[in-house]
Amino acid sequence: MQHCDITIVGAGSAGLTLALLLAPLGLQIRLLEKGPQPQPGAADFSRVSALNLASQRLLAGLGVWSGIAAEAAPYQQMEVWQADSFGRLGFSAAEQQLPALGWICDNQSIRQQLYQQLSQHSNVQCLFGSGISRISQGDQNVALQLESGDLLLSSLLVAADGANSFIRESLQLPLTHWDYQHHALVATLASTEPHQATARQVFWPDGPLALLPLPDSRQVSIVWSVPPERAQTLQALPAEAFAKAVTAASQSVLGPLQLVSERQRIPLRMRYANQWVQGRVVLVADAAHSIHPLAGQGMNLGLMDVAALAELISEQREQQGAIDCPRLLARYQRWRKSEAQSLILAMETFKRGFAGGALLPKVLRSIGMSLLDKQSKLKQPMMALALGNSGDLPKAARPAQPGSDAALG
């Protein structure tokens, strides 16, 4: 029987970041992961995330950003348009006096850098290949029974174990969810024309296609959201036919494309836990919420969750209070539920606003986009959301001072 202060279940980017944030507090921390530990290796960009300025500031403060940025692709522009219409929106780093609007990062590279840094802390024990068979709570601790038979006790348990969280399901925490009736096709394609460090998204009546710039100036990662039947058909196409379909859907904005990776097909569902705290257990990141990938905010939202929780635990330690204090956990739940609700609503409004191909709504959308594109002040709220400069940010993710982001690379 082993006891520690905090057990974090899940060694994805959120779980590793939380462990790294908490490590300097002197707590005994255990990190559990059913999969293998991150291994050094070159980024293959099979799964990517768009990190915004808030996430960049957080990761820079942890000392891992330089390693992540070395393999990431910064983008200086974003273009959003409606297919077969004249509506178009553009955003640029130059108009915001920033070197970049965000970075397209390889998910495994993020994990590798976080794990490498975390390995330097002797008070953090990482247990990989460790599945959980049972969870129970008592007055003094929460207990995890591992598949190996080991019993682990801790004062606080953090579930960072993803959208299909074992912890959340074991505790039967209520969940609001719906199926978007879309699957995302994810792949890497080579382009004829350079992407010019521009993130692009084109909206079709049956779903959006995003083209995300990679470090190679003639490679992009795509996220194509379409109904399940069409996604299955597209995945089964020969490579050349699939590349032609993506070229057509992107309206040849980068010229003819060529498939250079395997295709992944991912069902898209919205999940939102109605209860993020039960006793000594707290949910973070995808275990608490998952949203449509159309604005690329999923990982950013999860990183802000763990930064907020770490901030509250740090404050509690400074006041020599208990880290499992119900009031602390209630504060976290109120704070982050509110932020998640706001982003889910914004994404749902945005998604539904572009749904359907009827002529009149399409014309009205295009007029609205054209007007908005010409009004820089009206675009600011959208820019603040994309940059990670809106909402109630944790201290570790806030700008140090006005204009401080201008020096970021």
Outline the fold blueprint:
Layout: E1 2-9, H1 13-22, E2 29-33, E3 48-51, H2 53-61, H3 65-69, E4 73-75, E5 77-82, E6 88-92, E7 102-106, H4 107-118, E8 124-128, E9 132-137, E10 142-146, E11 151-159, H5 166-170, E12 175-191, E13 198-204, E14 207-213, E15 219-226, H6 228-236, H7 239-249, E16 257-259, E17 264-273, E18 277-278, E19 281-283, E20 289-290, H8 298-318, H9 326-353, H10 359-374, H11 376-387
Parallel strand pairs: 1-2, 1-11, 2-8, 5-13, 11-19
Antiparallel strand pairs: 3-7, 4-7, 5-6, 9-10, 10-11, 12-15, 12-16, 12-17, 13-14, 14-15, 17-20, 18-19
Helix pairs in contact: 1-4, 1-8, 8-9
Task: Describe this structure as you would to a colleague.
- This is FAD-dependent monooxygenase.
- The chain has 409 residues and is of the alpha+beta class.
- It has a single domain, classed as FAD/NAD(P)-binding domain.
- It is built from 11 helices and 20 strands.
- It has helices at 13-22, 53-61, 65-69, 107-118, 166-170, 228-236, 239-249, 298-318, 326-353, 359-374, 376-387; strands spanning 2-9, 29-33, 48-51, 73-75, 77-82, 88-92, 102-106, 124-128, 132-137, 142-146, 151-159, 175-191, 198-204, 207-213, 219-226, 257-259, 264-273, 277-278, 281-283, 289-290.
- The strands form 3 sheets. Strands 5, 6, 12, 13, 14, 15, 16, 17 and 20 form a 9-stranded mixed β-sheet that branches.
- Helix 8 packs antiparallel against helix 9 (326-353).
- The radius of gyration is 22 Å and the shape is globular.
